[in-house]
Amino acid sequence: MENRFGLKDFVLLAGLGLVIVLVILSMVQFDRQWDQVQAIRQKLEQQAIDLQAIQQQISRGVVQQSSTQPATNTQLPPSLERVAAARALPGFAEGDWVVSGQGGKFSTITPVVSGDAYANEVQSNVLETLCVRDPVTLEWQGLLAESWKVTDNSAAWDAYALARWAVPVTEAEVLAEPDCPPVEEADARKAYVQNRMKQGRKDDNIGREPNCPSAGSVRMKLRRNPTFSDGKPLTADDVVFTFNWIMNPAIDAPRQRAYLSRIRSVTKIADDEVEFVFSVPYFESFDLVAGFEVMPKHYYEKFSPSDFNSSTGFLLGSGPYMLGDPWKPGDLMQLVRNPRYWAVQSAFSRLVYREFTSRVALETAFRNGEIDSLTASPEQFVGLKKDASVADRSQAFEYQSAVSGYRYVAWNQFRRGKPTMFADKRVRQAMTLLVDQPRLLSDVMLDMAVPATGPFNPASKQNDPTIKPYAYDPARAAKLLEEAGWRDRGEGVLTNDAGERFEFKLTYPSANPNYEKMVLLLRDLYARAKVRLQPDPQEWSVFRDRLKNKEFDSITLAWSAGIETDIYQMFHSTQTMAGGDNFMSYRSPELDKLIDTARRTLDENKRMELWRAAHRQIYEDQPYTFLFFPKALIFLDKRISNVQKLPLGLNSDREWFVPKASQRWTK
């Protein structure tokens, strides 16, 4: 029987197709209407939030103007007077973007769990601190806080602690300490107990005793007009929540807990007043409070610690910028101007951060005008300054800051609970003696750096000027290595009595030619002494995981510095836990005692003597091979105006602007 497709069948199919098309069009129209309804609903919800915020502000005695403008009826914080002054300069205009290039990928921008410079740069434009330093005088000025009162009770604390220091610490007490390594890490646990028994009773232990008086307090009076970017007011509840959130052991924030460990409590006195009470005298007690970033309670309290720890884009604050859209790794990182910002608006509509996994691609993007700023390596800085096309449209800055950080090689002394070859001080000293530092400065840094002998900037009072860099001395290094059991047995590489070869990997950030050049020079220098270095470049997210989990032989990176640097988090024995910044597992009872004493010493002259003694101890032990303090080398597009070089570096980008005729970014 033959099947035929006739007119009747065609009409039937055509009709069916028409019905399908009409249904699809109806669904599309419905979706559009639904989107419009949703948009209207969201606008109404946002207006309700704004109205609620206004009512809350009124109830607190503050009348706020339109939600898209900063409040103008409150006194301008002195810390923002420079931002306001920039708006009065000739040619000032709002608008345009700053597009920056990052030499690595963002993995997370969630506060406290991020822990890298890229995330910190983004967060600093979204979160705000209680105070900020004046960039010229370096004095603290109020931002979220308008005033404060500092109470010193260190004399009473000292009187109590004097008797407690004489009481020996027991092994049971040491084993119960939260910093004690677990049973599985037998060698590390044994070393910890031995060191702690030598140290005796710690200040932090004394400070946590119920009868111990407080060491002092800082009471902060908050401004009444700051709000978060969603319109909710910022109050003392948010300050208290932030502290308690960070100090929760379930939150993956060991670095921040190390900073805040000497704060006994943070208490709400009133909606606009909060008190920080210290359990131990601390030389940076006010600085610690002043630099405290405030997180919104209503936003972050809805997350469980596990969700927070694994998050990538939980970022909301009271600052001049906010996330325009939800962000996840791989998305373009961009911040938009916060339309509800409570104070003086910044000029730029948007801050954009483009990721580059290659320094060559980063430089090419700057040459092509695809990005506005570039933090250059010495080779890039020299090359770009010679390029007339780049020089004509950019401004170059080269300076050695009093707070510039240092580059180092860290030697991992315990890995997976077992001591490594670098657990021997003689080996670490030998590794430093095999580094030709003058050649490193000339060949790698092109003389755009100064030698480092320890963690303190040469311009700092903490630095001991009598300490000189280790001289390049292969003969002395060979003797130390032989004493440590590493000998030349004719195999082309040093070996020990167990037949183990002196081979190790040096882990460093990949796609960075300057680091690669440095590592290759170190490889050649070590090879002359029959020590085999294997370069181990890693992408940034992998690099961070290696640090956190201590999965490396040696590692090279850089630390930033401050006006006065507290080295507790990097070098104190208590910070050797997973995720802690003593990731090389360096333990020194002598250094711990110096750090503890310096931190509780309020007299600056006495404290500086202690820091210089700590410098000498670190120089002797060489947990790092300290390499150099590099200069800051920065290019900015010439259309960006009001860029100034100040004592601590360039002025804030909140003071920058682009005249209307020179603006370029809109999409």
Task: Describe the model.
The chain is an alpha+beta fold and 667 residues long. Among the domains are: 79-105 and 330-400 and 632-667, 3-Layer(aba) Sandwich (D-Maltodextrin-Binding Protein, domain 2); 154-213, no CATH class; 406-630, Dipeptide-binding Protein, Domain 3 (Dipeptide-binding Protein, domain 3, Roll). It is 37% helix and 17% strand. It has 23 helices and 23 strands. The strands form seven sheets. The protein has a six-stranded mixed beta sheet with strand order 16-20-13-19-17-18. It has a four-stranded mixed beta sheet with strand order 1-10-9-8, covered by helices on one side. The chain has a four-stranded antiparallel beta sheet with strand order 4-5-7-6. Helix 16 (425-433) packs antiparallel against helix 18. It is globular and about 85 Å long.
In CATH, the homologous superfamily of the domain at 406-630 goes by the name Dipeptide-binding Protein, Domain 3
Average of pLDDT: 88
Q: CATH topology of the domain at 406-630, what is it called?
A: Dipeptide-binding Protein, domain 3
How many separate helices? 23
Counted beta strands? 23
Notable traits:
667 residues, alpha+beta, D-Maltodextrin-Binding Protein, domain 2, Dipeptide-binding Protein, domain 3, six-stranded mixed β-sheet, four-stranded mixed β-sheet, 17% strand, globular
In short:
The chain is of the alpha+beta class and 667 residues long.
Protein topology:
Blueprint (H helix, E strand, L loop, with lengths): L6 H53 L21 H7 L9 E6 L14 H7 L7 E3 L6 E3 L2 E8 L1 H12 L5 H5 L10 H14 L3 H5 L8 E7 L13 H12 L6 H7 L2 E8 L2 E6 L6 H6 L6 H4 L4 H5 L11 E3 L9 E5 L12 E6 L3 H9 L5 E3 L2 H9 L1 H6 E6 L6 E6 L2 E2 L2 E2 L5 H9 L3 H8 L4 E3 L22 H10 L19 E7 L3 H16 L3 E7 L1 H10 L4 E6 L8 H4 L17 H12 L3 H18 L2 E7 L1 E6 L7 E2 L2 E2 L17
Parallel strand pairs: 1-10, 17-18, 17-19
Antiparallel strand pairs: 2-3, 4-5, 5-7, 6-7, 8-9, 9-10, 11-21, 12-21, 13-19, 13-20, 14-15, 16-20, 22-23
Helix pairs in contact: 6-22, 16-18, 22-23
